[in-house]
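User: My instructor asked us to take a sequence, write out its structure as tokens, and then describe one feature of it. I'm not sure where to start. Here is the sequence I was given:
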Amino acid sequence: MAVTLQLPRGDRLLQPYTLAAQPRFEHPNGPIHSRVAFSAVHVVADPLANNNPTLDTAIDWEATLAYRRYLWSLGLAVAEAMDTAQRGMGLNWASAQELISRSLAEARAVGGRIACGAGTDHLIPGPNITLADVEAAYLEQCSFVEGQGGQIILMASRALAACARSPEDYVQVYERILGQVSQPVILHWLGDMFDPALAGYWGSRDLNEAMDVCLQIIRDHASKIDGVKISLLDDQREISMRRRLPAGVRMYTGDDFNYAALIAGDQYGHSDALLGIFDAIAPAAAAALRALDAGNLRRYQAILEPTVPLSRHIFQKPTFYYKTGVVFMAYLNGHQSHFRMVGGQESARSTVHLAELFRLADQAGLLRDPELATARMRIVLAQSGIV
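Assistant: Let's start with the prediction itself. The structure tokens for your sequence are:
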């Protein structure tokens, strides 16, 4: 029987919405071969912790790790302790260390692939931070990740963006870090739409000049670089950089607007994936990539392209609040029992935004239990006085 509920619109009116689709994706078996596909993954807050939720970090470890096991069961890799996990927006370095340690242990237990974010976020911000301080902070976090047996994702540094005065400063810091790591890392270029504190990264606000600096570092240290993840929401710029990478260095798309076409690729190559949206659309992502494994591009497009409107909605401005939509999807789909977030960020998107997310998720076939999702949507609507 069709299910209908009243969803709010931007003009304050309610509009009846009848669910359009049943879930489309069966649970797959076996690994994905055609692409390397990391899902940057969220954390589940502990809703019963007796703390200040805007200042303190309390994580429900079982629910958090269960979601990682779910992603591995789909054949996806996990990108741990990244911005999707609210790194720098509620998740501090002390909590990130425990998260990394626990997730690496889970990955070993189930044979899942994982890479972990290492940055400088434990530095206390201030005008006296130096390049040497940034280098020491990076080395401390890199040493921790590798000491736990993890691959490093070398995260962009707010502290470096604040204290660097030239592209040469970036070259100096990255040369020092890459000279110390023992395994190839994934570089991380996050645009200022994801984090305004990273404006001018690589020493220039001109993205062409910034790209040249990043490519210089990659070429000079290609043996220490697995790949580079860029999140600029600019598909043509990503393609341009992809074609200039040294042989053997992967482009990991972080473009949550244009990922379907970038992963499919062209006659010159393709992007692999390190995407926050894969957390929210994991069943579709896994099914689409298996279609690519089978050489069925039409099937890949038919699965993944309906998820793009949902992703563009979740990542709409202010983009850095996309984590709210990712966690809301996990709540709708029963991966956690509540819609609470570290830092109280469940309040960062409006009820109208969440209602539209529900509609787009349904149309993409991503509500795995429509009855449960509808019941939970009604709870959220009731909190805004919509009965």
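For the description part of your assignment, you could build on this observation: The first strand starts at residue 4 and ends at 8. Try explaining in your own words what that tells you about the chain.
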